[in-house]
Amino acid sequence: MNNVSRSHPSSTAWVVLLIGVFLMTSLIACRGGEGTECLTDSDCEEGIICIARQKSIDGEAYLEKWGTCFRDTDLDGIPDDGDLSGSPVDRRCGVRAEISDQTGIEVVFGEILSECDDNCVTVDNSPTAWTFGCFAKDACCPLSPDEKEKASVYDRCSEKSESIDSCAACSQSGNGADTCYLSEPAVGFQLNADGCVVCGAQQVITPCESEQDCTSLPVPACSGKWVCVVDQAVEGRFCKFTYSRFDRLDEDGYKMQVQLDVDGDGLGNACDNCKYLPNGNCDEEPVYCDVDGDGTVTGAERELGHQSNKDGDVFGDACDLCPDLFHKSNGDNDGDGRGDPCDPDDDNDGFCDPGEVASSEEFCNGEDNCPLLANPDQADFNQDGEGDICDVDWDGDGIREDGDASGVDGDNPCEDQVTRGCDDNCPGVVNPLQEDTDGDGVGDACDGN
Questions:
Q1: What is the 3-state secondary structure (H, E, C) of the chain?
Q2: What integer pLDDT is reported at residue 20 of this predicted model?
Q3: CA atoms of 443 and 11, how far apart (whole Å)
Q4: Is the separation of the CB atoms in 103 and 91 below 8 Å?
């Protein structure tokens, strides 16, 4: 029999191995839980990360060296349990705001921006909060010319002046807003007589050819200026206030983040299947599914809560106009409360949409020749199957009633024998050549002169 020699780890190797195991175990054991300080994610327990706050310096964001271990499922920088209460749902982040029907101005009903729980745990919804402000070099800052000269272009007035600037005075006096949470109107924000920003659309639109035409408007109290712009919301050029955005900082100078929750149901707009009607978790807070806002939650409202969505589309039952039909559009052309996908008569003129039949909720007959515009007479001058009210060429001569696409029929009648880029000069009478021998804007085919 052959003797087989087997080697065994030396005592030194065993020591090295044991030390390695000890160190690895120690490192894992030393990882911190939620709320502990950290430098990197490796300092935190498995499944949680190191979140460091940001400071804004000279217009740039800088992360703090030390952070805090938090669970952050969607990695958006807002912890699942930001208040470290042990519950991720007891203090939801969110700003509840809406545009008032009476004044057209934004009204803020609630605002929780710090030490709060992520209101969309699986969706990144953490834009930086911003505010109106005043740069040290701008006219809104009460510094001397020499002091302005020495200041950096990034310096805020509040950093260089002991006196309050005109922008801060607006918000502190309640005469203007320090921020606007909802989307900026296409025509721009309104400025009041003191130049303070009001979170609502301009009520009076000032036409302009250059910025010089905007000098009669209120002098802005915050950094920004009036500019002469073109926007599809207004015909021609008009004056619009363009402003500087400042990072919103907390009392320690750290940047803040904001999560919109305009219906106040505990779910951020980014993950709410009914953004404007509360249909959240009633078990957390009854108000989260108080659809009618009367302070009392009924059994029916509870059924609509918890993001209930029985047809599985993107619209929750609380706001779905076709709750039993999967669909991609929640439009309601005739405003009757039934969504177009489940409404057999979208314009409510008594004639069924093509391919539709009457339902138990709405009677209609026939087939509508203009399904989105009410035309109970179903007039069709050229008998082309398209009702006159929605027929772009209702005499069928190849020349459109609004041929220049201005939005107004007949405002640019075709000149003699011109057939493109102009409006039919004789709507209702077939005249494909658009003859107008006397040049009066009325085609010969219907000109009595």
A1: CCCCCCCCCCHHHHHHHHHHHHHHHHHHHHCECCCCEECCHHHECCCCEEECCEEEECCEEEECCCEEEECCCCCCCCCCCCCCCCCCCCCECEEEEEECCCCCEEEEEEEECCCCECCCCCCCCCCECEECCCECCCCCCCCCHHHHHHCCCCCEHHHHCCCCCHHHHHHHHCCCCCCCCCCCCCCCEEECCCCCEEEEECCCCCECCCHHHHCCCCCCCCCEEEEEEECCCCCCEEEEEEECCEECECCCCEECECCECCCCCCCCHHHCCCCCCCCCCCCCCHHHHCCCCCCCCCHHHHHHCCCCCCCCCCCCCCCCCCCCCCCCCCCCCCCCCCCHHHCCCCCCCCECCCCCCCCCCCCCECCCCCCCCCCCCCCCCCCCCCCHHHCCCCCCCCCCCCCCCCCCCCCCECCCCCCCCCECCCCCCCCCCCCCCCCCCCCHHHCCC
A2: 53
A3: 110
A4: no
Contact 91, 115 (CB under 8 A): yes
Rounded to the nearest angstrom, the gap between the alpha carbon of residue 26 and the centroid of all alpha carbons in its chain is 48
Cα angle 413-403-408, degrees, rounded to a multiple of 5: 75
CA distance 12 to 16: 6
Condensed to tens digits (0 to 9), the pLDDT of residues 264-287 reads 999 999 999 999 999 999 888 888
Q: What are the tokens at 100?
A: 């008032």
Q: Are 254 and 53 in contact (CB under 8 A)?
A: yes
pLDDT of residue 23: 43
Q: Quick one: what percent of the chain has pLDDT higher than 70?
A: 93
pLDDT for position 188: 94
Q: What is the mean pLDDT of the chain?
A: 89
Please give the average per-residue pLDDT across 120-143, as a whole number.
Answer: 94
Q: In Å, how far from its chain's centre is CA 107?
A: 16
436: exposed, middle or buried (Cβ count in 10 Å: 0-12, 13-18, 19+): buried
User: What backbone phi and psi angles, to 5 degrees, belong to 301?
Assistant: -65, -35
* Backbone φ, ψ for residue 32 (5° rounding): -85, 155
Inter-residue contact 417 to 445 (CB < 8 Å)? no
Sign of CA dihedral 409, 413, 419, 424: positive
Q: What is the pLDDT of residues 220-238, one digit of tens each?
A: 999 999 999 998 878 889 9
